[in-house]
Write a structure and sequence with these properties.
Number of helices: 14
Low-confidence stretches: 1-5, 158-165
Oligomer: single chain
Number of domains: 2
Mean pLDDT: 92
Length: about 500
């Protein structure tokens, strides 16, 4: 499923392609969107390329810092001995890592060894399952992604002679120093600057070139408003490939940054008082010939709202599905405690169930004629932060949108008025959950739309991982608390 099937190498072609290589790098994507992988010998790789290999299930039994979940979940736990699951190589994901001597690289997806079916929490598989429903109806999906991120100069590691400290050095620095002391790569608020990138030219162009060679091409690359903030728009493409390339883009930025003493941060809100990092995604449906199916073909003289005059009936139902389901899937859209620091009123981030034609204050921006070409007709989901998992986000968009199509749902709220404050609450739609606790409770509710489109197994697992984050947060003592109360109470 997905357009990469025509690029899959046969075993004979694979042996020819890797003739001069001695090793291969493999990686899968966990629920937090983090690449988890290993280096293997070419001999080992060729022996498992067809049927897969054992991969420790604890990848789905611990958090982003390798702490096992407080409440053990179904996939990996003491009862099953943290057994192996099966990692199957996606030969269509083949590329070479240009900054590591062009070593071959492949992505994997994770399967249950007993049933040979994808495990419920595998992000790549979840997306492909959602897209398969479109394919069965004769449709495909296209997507694009835009990521903002802060960049910092990694502080010098006093215990090392390295001129380019690693990101782990930055983490160690923050254990004993305040966040405010971490130096931004550039200073001031200067979006779309042509001069700021020159100060770090090797890194700036290095990221672009590495992305091109690593097949996660950038379409646009510029500074954003904020100290050391950059934004990249990735080239749009078939939705499953887009999700992979979005995850690999973060990998590139972090890898190239480590070579230049630069630490990127895709946190949704790294610093108080500054704009957060968005992770906007775009989506459209196409037929087998690639024709855009959200475009109506001609102007509707009597649309339900003028903002929809060029949107097809299919597109209207898809949009309705997104709007109906958005409040129930927020842990996927905004997966961390920090995500909700970005989603506050009047700070260039949407906080309501809202939509509108070319409306950047809405949760869903409709892009269509007369301001865009028919083939570019699409929906931009603007709630997502840069900290979200692209595979899960795109799976959610497809699943909710297709639910709207199947049920022929009607759009529940009028478009957001053009006079509304950016990111402000509005009578046009309900306020989205304000924190991870509320959003997780809604996500895991017995009758949630999330359970309807994804099933209980995934919801229970992913919801359990978010409950783990909440418990860690509840037990944390923050700098703010110490500064406020240490002497006064």
């Amino acid at each position: 499923m997905g357009s990469n099937t025509d690029k899959i190498l046969t075993l004979d072609q694979l042996q020819t392609e890797l003739a001069q290589d001695t090793k291969v790098k493999l990686a899968g994507i966990d629920v937090d969107g983090i690449l988890r992988g290993k280096l293997v010998s070419k001999k080992k790789f060729l022996s498992v390329a067809k049927d897969g290999f054992g991969f420790c299930s604890v990848t789905f039994g611990w958090d982003m810092h390798d702490q096992t979940y407080f409440r053990e979940l179904e996939i990996s736990n003491k009862e099953n001995g943290y057994r192996d699951i099966t990692a199957k190589v996606d030969l269509g994901s083949y590329r070479r890592i240009p900054w590591e001597d062009n070593i071959p690289f492949f992505l994997v997806s994770f399967y249950d060894p007993d049933t040979d079916k994808p495990i419920s929490a595998c992000p790549r598989s979840l997306l492909r399952t959602a897209v398969a429903k479109l394919n069965d109806a004769g449709y495909g999906a296209m997507a694009g992604a835009e990521y903002e991120f802060f960049t910092y100069r990694a502080p010098k590691d006093e215990s090392s002679q390295s001129a380019h400290p690693s990101s782990s050095t930055t983490a160690a620095f923050l254990m004993t120093n305040p966040v405010e002391s971490l130096p931004h790569l550039t200073q001031g608020m200067f979006g779309y600057s042509l001069t700021d990138p020159i100060h770090n030219q090797d890194w700036f162009y290095g990221v672009w070139d590495a992305c091109e060679k690593f097949n996660c091409n950038i379409e646009g690359w510029h500074t954003e408003s904020g100290p050391g903030v950059f934004e990249a728009a990735l080239e749009f493409g078939e939705i499953t490939e887009m999700a992979d390339r979005a995850s690999l883009f973060k990998y590139v930025v972090k890898a190239i940054g480590s070579k230049h003493g630069i630490t990127p941060s895709f946190m949704a809100k790294p610093k108080e008082g500054l704009p957060g990092n968005s992770g906007h995604v775009h989506c459209s449906l196409v037929d087998k010939a690639g024709k855009n199916l959200f475009y109506r073909g001609e102007r509707d003289p009597n649309p339900p709202y003028v903002d929809l005059e060029y949107i097809s009936d299919l597109g209207r139902h898809f949009l309705a599905g997104l709007l109906h389901g958005l409040p129930d899937v927020m842990p996927i859209i905004a997966p961390t405690i920090n995500s909700y620091k970005r989603l506050v009123e009047n700070f260039w981030a949407p906080v309501t169930v809202s939509w509108g034609l070319e409306h950047r204050a809405a949760s869903i921006r409709v892009i269509s004629p007369p301001t865009a070409s028919p083939k570019a007709t699409r929906f931009e989901i603007r709630v997502c932060g840069a900290d979200s998992n692209a595979s899960l986000v795109l799976a959610t968009i497809v699943a909710l949108g297709w639910r709207g199509v199947e049920k022929k749902l009607e759009i529940p709220v009028p478009p957001l008025g053009k006079g509304e404050d950016v990111g402000g609450s509005s009578d046009s739609g309900e306020r989205l959950p304000k924190n991870l606790k509320d959003s997780t409770a809604r996500f895991m509710a017995k009758e949630s739309i999330a359970r309807e489109v994804f099933g209980d197994s995934f919801v229970d697992h992913f919801g359990g991982t978010r409950e783990h984050e909440l418990r860690l947060w509840d037990e944390a003592v923050t700098d703010w608390e110490v500064r406020r109360y240490i002497e006064t109470v």
